[in-house]
Design brief:
Blueprint lengths: L1 E6 L13 E6 L33 E3 L3 E2 L2 H11 L4 H4 L1 H6 L9 H5 L9 H5 L3 E11 L8 E13 L3 E12 L4 E12 L5
Antiparallel strand pairs: 1-2, 3-6, 4-6, 5-8, 6-7, 7-8
């Protein structure tokens, strides 16, 4: 097998100077000293994998807080296709009595996506998928607000080879107000099927 190495050198072409020349090397010429025998990419994980039996009611998974700015609003508009001015026109919002652009409910709900936190990394090998989600929007979230999402196990429903983890999802704002509550269900493998 051949490998290519780039060596700096001025070459001419129709498009102008190119600052690279490729030199072929045989694989046998590459040194094995560059390979770390102690490193295994399969072991490069954030946490050891947990299974249904390892989880407990009351276990809490905090998702990093974030301040929702103009870029978040624009990205959500692009992804959702929602173009109502209450979410994207600050002057329209002010005329309607709001201090700033109002976040779409789903924009708030996605803050509780399990993948935004550690839970999927903790479940790693056992996670099958998110199977259900519901949300109640309890207060407004405006552009510039900081949100604090969290998930907490409220119920564990065992099955034969899998189980369902029921999570209560919450989002608070910087004023300590609960602005969203909901529920999510994740299907997870058991370590020892019964």
């Amino acid at each position: 097998m051949l490998h290519w190495i780039i060596v700096s050198r001025q070459l001419s072409s129709r498009l102008g100077p190119i600052d690279a020349e490729f030199i072929k090397l045989k694989e046998s010429d590459l040194s094995m000293r560059d390979i770390d025998p102690d490193f295994d990419p399969a072991l490069h994980t954030l946490a050891d994998s947990s299974y249904f039996e390892d989880m407990s009611v009351g276990q809490r998974f905090v998702i990093p807080s974030r301040t929702l700015g103009d870029a978040n609003f624009a990205a959500f508009q692009l992804a959702s296709g929602d173009n109502h001015p209450i979410h994207y026109d600050v002057e329209y919002c002010r005329k309607k009595g709001h201090p700033h652009m109002l976040a779409h409910g789903f924009q708030v709900a996605i803050q509780t996506a399990p993948g935004a936190g550690m839970l999927p990394h903790i479940l790693e090998e056992s996670l099958i998928g998110l199977i259900e989600q519901s949300s109640k929007f309890l207060g407004p979230v405006y552009c510039g607000d900081t949100v604090y999402p969290a998930l907490e196990i409220s119920e564990l429903i065992p099955g034969k080879t899998t189980g369902v983890i029921v999570l209560s999802s919450t989002v608070h704002n910087q004023h300590r107000q609960l602005v969203m509550s909901g529920e999510q269900r994740m299907l997870v493998r058991k370590r020892s099927p019964t």
